[in-house]
C-alpha cells in the first residue's frame, strides 16, 4: 500500500505521515506469518543539512520519530541508484516513510550530481521501485503551488517539476491525503463501501458533458487540472488559453485554461472584475473554467498584485455560485466540492 501525503508548510503533514506509517507497521507485524522474520521500519531522509536552519529542522524531525523504531537512511540523491546498490537494505516487505519529495526534487535539480532536466523521471522511478519492494510506503510532499505573484524562471521550473512528480506519484498511490491544519483530508482512496459508492456516483456525474453547463476546475499550479478537465469536457470542445487568447473570446469559447491569467490581462487592460463576471454570466453560462488558486500565498507587496489576487478570488467565488459543478484538483486527483 502506498500513500502520498501533501500539505503546506507547518500543516502537520509530517506528524500525520509518521503516525500513519507506524500504524501500518504495527498492522504488518500483527499479520506477519511466524518464521518470516521482522518487518523493518525505514525513514528515508533527504534534506541536506545546509546551515543552522536546516539542521534545526532535521533535529526536530529526529525528536518526532525518536523511540519509534525507525532505521534512518540518509539518501539525498538518486533513489534508483541507492536501491540497486548491493550495500543498501533490500527494502523488501518493509514499512518505509520518505520525507520529503520537495527536498528530493530540489536536490536532483540543483546538486552537481543530480539529475537536472531528468529530475521528474528519476524521482518517479525511485518511488516506483520503493513501492514495488515495500509492504507499505508513505511519501510526503509539499504544496508550494498557490501564489498569485509571477514566479522567477527558476522557481517556475521547480514548481513545474515538483507538480509533475506529485501527479505521477498520486497515480501510483492507493491513497492521497492532504493535511490541512493537522486535519487529514482524503483526496484519493475510499475507506468504506459507502465512500466508494459515493465516489463512483461522482465519477459518473462528472463524465463527458452531454447537456452543457458551467463547471469550474481549480487547485494549485501544476496539479494536472487541464488533464482532469479534459476528462469532463465534451468531445470537440473549443479551448481558449487565458494567457494568450483575445479578451473577447471569453463570451464564445467552450472552455478556458489559465483563467487566472485571463483575469490578470483583463484587469491590466483597465476593465473591471465585475464586467468580466457579468459578461460570462450573460453570454457564456456553459463555460468550462480551469483556474489556479492564487490566494493562499503571502499577501503581495505590490498594489496591483494585491488587487488582482483579491479580484481573482471574488470573480471565482461569484461564478461558483452559478456553476453546476466545482472540482478541486490536488496532485492530479480531483474532488467534486459542489
Description:
This protein has helices spanning 13-31, 51-65, 79-84, 101-110, 119-133, 153-172, 193-205, 225-232, 259-268, 273-283, 303-322, and strands at 2-6, 41-45, 71-74, 95-99, 136-140, 175-180, 183-188, 215-219, 239-241, 255-257, 288-292, 325-330, 333-336. The chain starts with a strand and ends with a strand. The protein contains eleven helices and 13 strands. It has a seven-stranded mixed β-sheet with strand order 3-2-4-5-1-6-7, with helices on both faces. The protein has a six-stranded mixed β-sheet with strand order 9-10-11-8-12-13, sandwiched between helices. Helix 4 (101-110) crosses helix 6 (153-172). Helix 2 (51-65) links the parallel strand 2 (41-45) and strand 3.
Tell me the series of helices and strands, N- to C-terminal.
EHEHEHEHHEHEEHEHEEHHEHEE
- The largest sheet has its strands arranged as 3-2-4-5-1-6-7
Strand content: 15-25%
With helices defined by DSSP (H or I, 4 residues minimum), what is the helix count?
A: 11
How far is the N terminus from the C terminus? 30 Å
The Rg value, from CA coordinates, equals 22 Å
Shape: elongated
Q: Please state the structural category.
A: alpha/beta
Number of E-type strands:
13
Name the average pLDDT. 89
- Main beta sheet, described? 7 strands, mixed
**Percent helix range:** 40-55%
Low-confidence stretches: 192-204
Amino acid at each position: 500500500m502506498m500513500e502520498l501525503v501533501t500539505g503546506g508548510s507547518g500543516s502537520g503533514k509530517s506528524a500525520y505521515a509518521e503516525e500513519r506509517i507506524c500504524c501500518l507497521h504495527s498492522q504488518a507485524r500483527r499479520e506477519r506469518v511466524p518464521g518470516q522474520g521482522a518487518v523493518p521500519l525505514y525513514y528515508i531522509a533527504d534534506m541536506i543539512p545546509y546551515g543552522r536552519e536546516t539542521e534545526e529542522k532535521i533535529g526536530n524531525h529526529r525528536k518526532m520519530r525518536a523511540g519509534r523504531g525507525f532505521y534512518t537512511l540518509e539518501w539525498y540523491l538518486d533513489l534508483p541508484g541507492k536501491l540497486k546498490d548491493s550495500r543498501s537494505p533490500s527494502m523488501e516487505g518493509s514499512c518505509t516513510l520518505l520525507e520529503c519529495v520537495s527536498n528530493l526534487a530540489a536536490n536532483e535539480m540543483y546538486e552537481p550530481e543530480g539529475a537536472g532536466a531528468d529530475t521528474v523521471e528519476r524521482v518517479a522511478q525511485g518511488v516506483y521501485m520503493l513501492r514495488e519492494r515495500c509492504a507499505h510506503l508513505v511519501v510526503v510532499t509539499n504544496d508550494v503551488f498557490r501564489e498569485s505573484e509571477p514566479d522567477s524562471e527558476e522557481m517556475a521550473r521547480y514548481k513545474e517539476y515538483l507538480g509533475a512528480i506529485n501527479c505521477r506519484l498520486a497515480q501510483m498511490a492507493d491513497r492521497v491525503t492532504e493535511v490541512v491544519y493537522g486535519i487529514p483530508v482524503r483526496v484519493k482512496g475510499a475507506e468504506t463501501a459507502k465512500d466508494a459508492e459515493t465516489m463512483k456516483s461522482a465519477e459518473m456525474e462528472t463524465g463527458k458533458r452531454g447537456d452543457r453547463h458551467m463547471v469550474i476546475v481549480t487547485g494549485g499550479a501544476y496539479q494536472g487540472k487541464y488533464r482532469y478537465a479534459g476528462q469532463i469536457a465534451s468531445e470537440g470542445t473549443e479551448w481558449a488559453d487565458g494567457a494568450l487568447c483575445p479578451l473577447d473570446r471569453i463570451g464564445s469559447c467552450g472552455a478556458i485554461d489559465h483563467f487566472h491569467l485571463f483575469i490578470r490581462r483583463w484587469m491590466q487592460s483597465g476593465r473591471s472584475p465585475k464586467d468580466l463576471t457579468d459578461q460570462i454570466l450573460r453570454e457564456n453560462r456553459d463555460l468550462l473554467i480551469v483556474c489556479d488558486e492564487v490566494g493562499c500565498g503571502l499577501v503581495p507587496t505590490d498594489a496591483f498584485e494585491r488587487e488582482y489576487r483579491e479580484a481573482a478570488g471574488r470573480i471565482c467565488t461569484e461564478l461558483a455560485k452559478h456553476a453546476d459543478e466545482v472540482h478541486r484538483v490536488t496532485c492530479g486527483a480531483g474532488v467534486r466540492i459542489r
